[in-house]
Amino acid sequence: MLALMAGPAYAQQQSRSQPAASAANPDSPVVLDQINVQGEGVPGGTLLNGPTTTRTTRQELDREQVQNLSDLANRVEAGISFNRQNNSLNIRGLDGARVLTTIDGIRQPFLIDTRISRGAQNAFDFDSLSTLDLLRGGSGASTLGGGALGGALAVRTLDPEDLLRNGRSYGTLAKTGYDSTDRAWFGSGAVAARMGNTSVLLQGGFRDGHEIDSKGSNKSIGATRTAPNPSDFNQYNFLGKIYQEVGDHRFGLTAEFFKRADRTQVRNNTVSLTGNFRPGAYQSGEDVERNRVSLTYDYKRPGGFIDEAHATLYWQRLKRDDLTNAWRFTSIVGPYARDNSNEENAYGFNGHVLKNFQTGVLSHRVTLGTELRTTSLEQYSAGVDNCPARPASGAFAGALATCNNLFTNQADQPKIDGKLVGLYAHDEIGLIDNRLRITPGVRFDWYEEKPQDTPAYTNGGSRPVGLPPSSSDTGWSPRIRLEYDILKNAPLVKDVTVFAQWAKTFRAPTADELYGRFGGPSTYLRTGNPNLRPEVGNGIDVGLRFGNKQLGGSITYFHTNYRNFIETYQVQAPGVGGLYPQGGITGYQNINRAEIQGFEANGQYGFAPNWLVRGSFAYTRGKNKDNDTFLNSIPPVQGIVAIAYGTDVWGAEVSTKLAAARDDVSTVSGGTGFNAPGYAIFNASAWWRPLPQVADLELQVGVYNIFDRKYFDAVNVPLARPQARDYYSEPGRTVKATMKYQF
Q: CA-CA distances (angstroms) from residue 43 to 50, 468, 665, 666?
């Protein structure tokens, strides 16, 4: 029963670099690596290090067969979710633009379209990653800046050093496999080499598959359908790096390319057998492409005038296209196609320096840094249909009335030129032989979003009158953290540390929230609000962490108050003055107060040689304090428990993901929250290294949701649900098989 009530754990074999004596002695304990441990260096590095940051390494991602953010939430990190409705990670009940994602320290924008509210926070390939750091809460804003309201996800891509093992001058890593969740075949390969003071890395990967499975079995056409729409996708990436070392200095050049294309044959309520849109003649799609070129500089000389310096100069382009390709059969018969495109080009510089020094009995670790960024964002909706030229009145009548809803070949927002300047300073002050540490710090940000006139916007069907004003503001993100080591090197639990921190953070409005404008006087209007103020969070974390990989864990209580939360509301009722009869005018406003609080805990225990049991737990509760309603983005109580066994040759684990029912939902804002039933899903996996002394070849198979349980991820269910209930269910029993070779 203990084995069946388990969840993701990590039964990592001992490294080959460990002394052979431990393998020769069968009674010597083997300490298994856990999930939430640091890889090389401190979790989060200098900028995200803290008591609420956890790190997952490349080896742990492979062992848990994690290849997307949903896998991470189901097998590794309790209390987080990936919202597939808007393509964003949910941390502590917040998602979308309220969670910041960085790739090699470069912030990723949350690009959404006025017509389709989906972002692209997952525009990277998991097989290209070296480490993944997850920060819960807003304390990261004091170094990373705005956007980390709920937390931050910081991923680092592979470096040559990740493949150059045991002093070799070259290394390879290859992986392939199959996942029945979306019937996907995938593969990746990486090579690295060192030649004197020069090192290089080349990595590439692909993934081809279909729709994500669910427990829906009704394949009818229309609103009664519960099976997912048939889909196909292909994804591929390329990563190249070269580094040159000159004494204590290292200079680097990185080029990265990622693209994913999804195509879906729509079978749900959008089509019908006799309607305007029919099955087989309505295809939707999404293209996401990210390109990056960056120059890096790293310096390290402990005891010098500056101990460390790190800098990145980059160009990044992120492009999203939401596509429709269809044929209308009754109203305005003929082709109907749309390409809603958002493209942001960004140039930026990130840099920070570190200095350690002593003043009397106090030790100091000072960090000074900056972020400079300039962006250009353009949105355009291209399309074709059989509508004639719009009449002078601006509204079609009679048989052509449908054309009132089909504005295209226009921009739904002006071109936006953005600027960001951030400056931060922190000092970790150590007392009592560094057992007591006090870390004050603050970051200052100034941002500006400035609309630029374009004919595509000025002549749009929403009839804008002139350009909206610029949006500019400043934000202070102070933080203070206290840590005290109650015990050091104690015999049972090693170290015991209590901590408390207070932090403020902010989130600037997105371009869509400020300037999006779609619709027309004869239909409806969705409009931005250029007068929106930034959202502000003010929160505390208090907790305890103890032990190490053999026996350890942490407990945290958090409470955050938010001001100026941005939400949609009805600006004008339908039909006022004979205008906007279909839906009136909807827009954005700030609400005064919201509150999120909860508990998080995790722990692990290597209770016998080669054995590990671990668990994690998360409880979150959130409310709109203006109207005393629940926030529908809050997940239910969740837990992950696991038991695992591993040697140098083989290992296995049995795990469970547990979630309570979610009944605390709101029916007020934009739709009804989903009342999700509780569930328990069980997983099992095993791995085998047939010839560990000859080649690092590893075979692994995992079976997830073993008992084929129907369950719902509450955060992933939309507020508006036109389909039957099971349409929104998660996958049933799935199998994943992988083969990895490293040399």
A: 8, 43, 34, 36
Cα atoms in the 13 Å half-sphere on the side-chain side of 33: 21
pLDDT (0 to 100) of residue 627? 85
Neighbours of 735 (CB within 10 A): 12
Q: CA–CA separation, 264 vs 281, rounded Å?
A: 11
Min mean pLDDT across 444-448, 592-596, 736-740 is at: 592-596
User: Is the CB of residue 104 less than 8 Å from the CB of residue 541?
Assistant: no
pLDDT band at 41 (very low <50, low <70, confident <90, very high): low
Q: Could you tell me which residues are beta bridge partners of residue 355? A: 366
Structure tokens, 600 = 């998080």
Rg of the chain over Cα atoms, rounded to whole angstroms, equals 26
| Pair of tokens at residue 42 | 């401190």
> What local confidence, expressed as pLDDT, does residue 666 receive?
85
Q: Mapping DSSP to helix (H, G, I), strand (E, B) and coil, where does residue 376 land?
A: strand
pLDDT, residue 548, reads 85
Q: CB of 84 within 8 A of CB of 68?
A: no
Query: Strand pairing of 415-431 and 436-452?
Result: antiparallel
708 within 8 A of 733, measured Cβ to Cβ = yes
The enclosing domain of 565 has a CATH number of 2.40.170.20
Beta-bridged to residue 365, according to DSSP, are 356, 428
In a domain, 14, yes or no: no
Q: Is residue 607 part of a domain?
A: yes
pLDDT score for 114: 77
8: in domain: no
For the record, the structure tokens of 209 come out as: 């598959």
Q: Which amino acid is at 75?
A: R
Output the CA torsion sign for 121, 243, 48, 66: positive
DSSP symbol at 149: S
pLDDT at residue 693, rounded to an integer = 75
| 703: Cα separation from own chain's centroid | 25
Range of the domain at 722: 20-202+215-742
Q: Is residue 9 part of a domain?
A: no
Q: How many domains does the chain have?
A: 1
Alpha carbon of 595 to those of 94, 203, 411, 505, 571: distances in Å? Answer: 11, 43, 36, 14, 25
What percentage of the chain exceeds 90 in pLDDT?
Answer: 74
Residue 274 makes CB contacts below 8 A (sequence gap 6+) with none
Cα distances from 129 to residues 38, 57, 87, 454, in angstroms, run 15, 8, 19, 39
Distance separating alpha carbons of residues 121 and 128, to the nearest angstrom:
16
Q: Strand, helix or coil at 516?
A: coil
Percent of the chain residues topping a pLDDT of 70? 94
Q: What pTM was estimated for this model as a whole?
A: 0.91
* Alpha-carbon gap, residue 549 to 432, rounded angstroms: 26
Say if CB 127 and CB 135 are below 8 A apart. no
Per the listing, tokens 């710090």 go with 441
Contact 552, 36 (CB under 8 A): no
End-to-end CA distance of the chain: 39
Contacts with 227 (C-beta within 8 Å, 6 or more apart), sequence order? 214, 216, 217, 218, 219, 267, 727
CB atoms within 10 A of CB 308: 18
In angstroms, the CA 581 to CA 71 distance is 44
Q: Is the pLDDT of residue 2 over 50?
A: no
Q: Which of 59, 79, 80, 76 is nearest to 9 (CA)?
A: 76
Q: How far apart are CA 541 and CA 558, in angstroms?
A: 4
Q: Of 738, 682, 711, 709, which Cα lies nearest the Cα of 8? A: 682
- Res. 676: pLDDT tops 80: yes
Would the CA dihedral through 264, 94, 106, 116 be positive or negative?
positive
pLDDT digits (tens, 9 = 90+) for 172-189: 999 999 999 999 999 999
Q: What mean pLDDT is predicted for residues 377-390? A: 91
Element (DSSP H or E) covering residue 458: helix 455-458
Mean pLDDT of 677-683: 96
